[in-house]
Amino acid sequence: MAAQTATVLPMLDSNFDVDKLTYEIFSILETKFLFGYDDPKLLLAGKHEIPVETLSEDLKTGKNIAGKVRILSIDGAGSSDGILAAKSLAHLEACLRRKSGNPQLTISDFFDVAAGSGVGGILAALLFTRGKDGRPIFSADEALKFLVENRKKIIPSSPAGIFRRIFRPVKAERILRRIFGESTLKDTLKPVLIPCYDLSTRAPFLFSRADALETDGYDFKMSEVCIATSADPAAIGAVEMRSINKKTRILAVDGGIAMNNPTAASITHVLNNKYEFPFCDGVEDLLVVSLGNGDSDSGCRDLTPSSAEFVRIAGEGASDMVDQAVSMAFGHCSTSNNYLRIQASGLNAGKYPNSKSADGKRLVGIAEEMLGQKNVESVLFRGKKIVENTNLEKLELLAGELIKEHERRKSSILPTVVLKQASPRTSSATTVSTVSSY
To answer: Where does the secretion signal sit in this chain (predicted)?
Structure first.
């Protein structure tokens, strides 16, 4: 990329009548990103100086010139079986459509990367897999309705007999295959990250669009990815699956065992993927949204929890630890709209004695009550604090930030994201495509 930029600039200078300011901006960008100068004085020094007041604040400082990479991360089931995250996304999508004036926009238009674990992985797949019309197969509201109607079939929550363990979750497979068809990781609109735990290697396994585009050995059908990340070992046991070319075999169980909160994994993916995110250098270049699914009901806690409850408690604890770690990593940026965590707890145990056994419609009501709670933020070295805004109000503010970044890209000089795309002729080849505004 450096070589391309270095040769383009002289061509512009000699063959085109380029406005002086435009040429100087390109020179600044070349100096900043090819030679790493951070001092605004050095950036502005040169043969033709330009007045500092003619530059935007970003160009003066050399920061966030290419904008922020937008990451969506969705936790595993939680006490709401994924309904809280689904309801949050439905509300966010409605806000984005209302504020933008475009009723056709979806969640996938406003995020560059999506990560999800367990039922969060299923949501990410529904919202970011490409349909026949080139748009996502589900809107957020459709994904919420799908989860309400099918959660008990695709998220088993009780031990099963040997018959079911041998023949696997047939109903879940049929439902997911009907939704995703033959779509694979390559068919997602944006980079997608979905974890599971591989019993054959005793290690986490991360399904990744970027890896799938590199080799068919890491490309899997989306329906099987969803089954793998939500395979409850206590209910159905492990799920055996193979890659598209049959060369990679994994024995998968629930992604929540590996990483119930995949936020840290998604951030690491972006910061280390310079091919697709060339100008993302640190957390100040990110806008991260992390959606929880509710802490356990207080009425479910006792002194002798079952093995399944131990797993759930461990997952929730790990999610909270990831939230704390990410908040510390963002530091001062976490208070400047760079990191938002939506999570809820403390439901009225008398009103909702057992949310896990509630039907879908009742869980939607529980999720709405959760969104009405005041937002809880992790504070650097100070644990957590309750802020004045509710989760719903935070989502409203987030919609404004996402639209602001969305509009900024329309006039941006540099691409924020440069995605690899699967070649339509050969499944293993890739081409480079700059992401458009929508």
So the answer is: none
Catalytic residue positions?
A: 117, 254
Distance (Å) of CA 257 to CA 104, 151, 186, 266, 292: 36, 19, 25, 17, 15
CATH number for the domain formed by residue range(s) 69-156+189-196+261-298+306-348+360-411: 3.40.1090.10
Q: Quick one: how far is CA 275 from the chain centroid?
A: 18
- Residue 3: both structure tokens together: 């070589």
Q: How far apart are CA 427 and CA 185, in angstroms?
A: 12
Q: Supply the Cα-derived Rg of the chain in whole angstroms.
A: 23
The domain ranges of the chain are 69-156+189-196+261-298+306-348+360-411
Residue found under tokens 């089931």: 77
| Residues 347-358: tens digit of each pLDDT | 544 454 444 556
The Cα 265–Cα 278 span in angstroms is 18
Please, are residues 152 and 230 in contact by the beta-carbon 8 Å criterion? Answer: no
User: By the 8 A CB rule, do 192 and 115 touch?
Assistant: yes
Q: How many CB atoms lie within 10 A of CB 299?
A: 14
Beta partners for 249? 242
Average pLDDT over residues 65-74: 91
Q: What is the pTM of this model?
A: 0.79
d(CA 78, CA 80): 5
